[in-house]
Amino acid sequence: MPATTIKQVTVEPLNIELDEPFTIAIGKKERIENVLVTIVLENGIQGYGEAAPLEPINGENQATVMAVLNSCTEYLVGQEAASYRTISERLRSIFRPQITARCAVEMALLDAFTRTLDIPLYRFFGGLENRIETDYTIDIVPPDKAQKDAARLAREGYRVLKIKVGSDPEEDIERLLAIRKGAPDCRVTVDANQGFNPAQAVGFMKDLEKRNIRPVLFEQPVARDDLEGMRFVREHVTVPVAADESVFTPADAIRVIRSGCADIINIKTMKSGLLGALDIAAVARSAHVELMIGCMLESTLSKSASVHLAAGVGGFRYVDLDPHAHPERDPFAGGPAFKAPAYTLDDEHPGIGVRRK
Predict the structure, then answer these.
(1) Average model confidence (pLDDT) for the chain?
(2) Is residue 99 helix, strand or coil?
(3) Can you tell me the distance from the alpha carbon of 255 to that of 266, in angstroms, rounded to the nearest whole number?
(4) Alpha-carbon dihedral of residues 219, 195, 209, 148, nearest 10 degrees?
(5) pTM over 0.90, yes/no
(6) Which CATH architecture is the domain 123-356 placed in?
(7) What is the CATH code for 6-119?
(8) Confidence band of 327 (pLDDT split at 50, 70, 90)
(9) What's the distance, CA 70 to chain centroid?
(10) What is the C-alpha to C-alpha distance for residues 324 and 340, in angstroms, rounded to an integer?
(11) CB-based contacts of 84-89 (< 8 A; 24+ apart in sequence)
(12) Hey, what's the torsion of the CAs at 55, 248, 293, 158, to 10 degrees?
């Protein structure tokens, strides 16, 4: 195998305008404001990594990520990409809270390393599947727009729609009723992003039940640290409850499982990193807790890495990896082939398979 010594590391902002604002219970984003890491090996191979900070979720923003990554470049040069786990542990010991920055380095390392091995990343992760189907998220928008969006997405082939809730229960119900009218054959999941207290969450689900709306799952209904509150919700509703913001680390997953507050754990690389995601998946599986994979506001690069992860590990029953950036604005091409609603991977493109335009 050619030497995998890191020769050069570059860090640059990655800004992409969204077609329209993306609104959830804890905030609004007008654009993707991420960071790109490029690692060049002595063998000439490049690897790409993306950090997608979202301050209300992971406490990072573009400026803090840029500062952390720029402070890492001197350490990274001269290291072996093949020693990606050693590098990851070293960075975690110094920059524990800066998870998206560390994830970008892990992504770039694994991209470069698997390109050197001439295998796609999903094969490196186990290669259990080569096709996964995603839902599509409808954020907090007026009911008439939600109905139109739902009808369009159903025509495009999506079978599951993820609905953001948690801002106002009555408005949320109106939005869900409109979505059912626009896409009556689509299943729905609801994601509160910590927007309810336990009583509100239970009341909201009972109101949906009265209107004959039964979601596939109820994601993060209450505050991330309120595991007792989430267990209360789980004990008083009839749909599965998913933990999202409550799980950043394998230790968090253990706490969630021991508390009995969730049926599903939503893994996101921007909460755990790629290597942490593997550990969380192992913890969940050992406890017979179902797996979901999700994302932040990410470009084709980071989204593709998550597709490789989910397909390679396999067994992710719930997938929330819908495209955010318009293809013309996205600075990357390639990656897993996408035809709504599914991603398909092949063995012809090593690494993540993404290239800069």
Answers:
(1) 95
(2) helix
(3) 14
(4) -80
(5) yes
(6) Alpha-Beta Barrel (3.20)
(7) 3.30.390.10
(8) confident
(9) 24
(10) 13
(11) 84/109, 84/110, 84/113, 84/275, 85/275, 88/273, 88/275
(12) -30
